[in-house]
Amino acid sequence: MTRIAAIPLSISEILIPEDSLNVVDLSTFPVPSDKNAPKLLDLTDDMLFLETASLIQDEQRVAFLQSLAMPTGEETLEIRKRRGVALEANQTIQSLVYPHGNMDICLPLWIVEYWLEANYILEAKIQWQCS
């Protein structure tokens, strides 16, 4: 059975808006762009998933995640599928590689769940702006 990498509650409270947030406040809530994200799907699983733990595990280090471009929802679903297969095959993976400039950042596996939520919010914001 595949383990779901859940976003820790203390971090979710920072990155995901409350359900009770009104539309005006939600429209200004920071979410990553889905433009100019690195091509994570071009990486092989042994390059994309690492056994090294991410240093981004506490509230002080997560706010910058909102500034990193994220894959589209469709790409994120494929990454989630690949993460599940990798976890089934190798229970020791702990992070996901994110190429950023001339370096790689090790992101926690729960970043995939965050990107799915953020894509949902981004789509809603776009729909409200077009209405």
Verbal overview:
This protein is α+β, with helices and mostly antiparallel strands. The protein has 5 helices and 3 strands; from the N terminus they run αααβαββα. The chain has a 3-stranded antiparallel sheet with strand order 1-2-3. The relative contact order is 0.23. The model has no long low-confidence stretch (mean pLDDT 86).
What is the strand and helix layout of this fold?
Layout: H1 9-15, H2 23-28, H3 45-48, E1 49-50, H4 73-89, E2 95-100, E3 103-108, H5 111-130
Antiparallel strand pairs: 1-2, 2-3
Helix pairs in contact: 4-5
Distance between the termini: 42 Å
The coarse silhouette is globular
Question: Strands of the largest sheet, in order across it?
Answer: 1-2-3
- State the low-pLDDT regions, or none: none
Class per helix and strand makeup: alpha+beta
Q: How many strands, which pairing sense, and closed or not: the largest β-sheet?
A: 3 strands, antiparallel
Provide the descriptors you would attach to this structure in a database record.
131 residues, three-stranded antiparallel beta sheet
Summarize the structure.
By secondary structure, the protein is α+β, with helices and mostly antiparallel strands.
